[in-house]
Amino acid sequence: MANQTQHSDICIVGNGAVGKAAALGLTQAGLKVTLLCPAAAPVAASDHWDVRVYALNHVAHDLLSSLRVWDALDAGRVAPVAAMQVHGGHAADAGKLGFDAYGACIEELAWIVEDRNLNRALDTAMKFAQNLNVLHGRAQALQLQEDSALVRLDDGTALRATLVIGADGAQSWVRAQCDIGLDYRSYGQKGVVANFACEKPHRGVAQQWFVGEQGIIALLPLPGQRVSLVWSAPDALAAQLLREPLPALAARLEEYCLASLGHLSALVPEEIKAFPLTLMHPHSTIAPRVALVGDAAHVVHPLAGHGMNLGFGDVACLLDLVRRREAYRDCGDSRVLERYRRARKEQVMLMQLTTDGLARLFASELAPLRLARNLGLNLLDRLPVIKGKLISHAMGK
Fold this sequence. Notes:
By secondary structure, the protein is an alpha/beta fold. It has ten helices and 21 strands. A hairpin with a 5-residue loop joins strand 15 (205-210) and strand 16. Helix 1 packs parallel to helix 3, helix 1 runs parallel beside helix 7 and helix 7 (307-323) runs antiparallel to helix 8. The longest helix has 30 residues, at 334-363.
């Protein structure tokens, strides 16, 4: 197919879960879609637990259910979150804030899903999608025209579409081609992830500790007596954690969770990974004939676990607006794109400000701030109306 022009309604650049969900949703809406992604080796079947997990909220659940992907997940590897406990530290006087599904009159607050489980379900669904062309190649140039956009590949192939969706991650090629400016800040932290077996049942409770200069520790429930660690650790500490054997890391964690989870032991095979934590805010999520979704459109601190949820929220919003557009407008019409930009601006900005503010607030070890934080957490825990609003926001409602 080299040196030919292929036509579709929408061209999606990216090979992550957000881009795949967008491809499925748009094809199910009756549109012809090309998904451009680099060739990747198939993921080998494994019973080992993936260290990269997501806490998917109700927006993500509803989107994946509508795409008939949720029921394709391996349900035995999905853990519902029944409650969440937030600790201002591990000292006896540390503030605490608790959320639970029962108090919110819902069955689950969220669901913990492995990256591998999610992408396998999406890949399976794409095999049965009509009007979806998955093309492996490398984009070389993007030309934006009045009525369409043209993506040129390095083998000479050209992809013409009325809308190009950039779902190609934080280092988005599509965003760069559109000359969209970017506000960027490194947190000087890495997200250290690993999985452990716990001596006591976690009962579906996610726990999070703000531990000052040592960062933020989260232990998320996995099926059975297993938990997944996400430690937002300063770079120097993260490097140390990566050098240590996992039993040493387990001993560090037991300082916080021994009473609730008992002793921890690393799951076999022992695996630990880390990824840099940054704040990214593009100056726009749209350009002529282009929309950005997922990490291409925003990157937030993972303390609330909502990076993937924001991406699925982008997809759900864009799908709705494309479906409801006027008959005389195509998918990449400027009015449709402007509606998308406005619809997502407030929620994304609120999440970025909230996570960034909390990360800064809880990083300080100043005694007055530490006291104020603990008092604030304890006060919030006694205000059910405000807690209910926080839960609704976390659910994406």
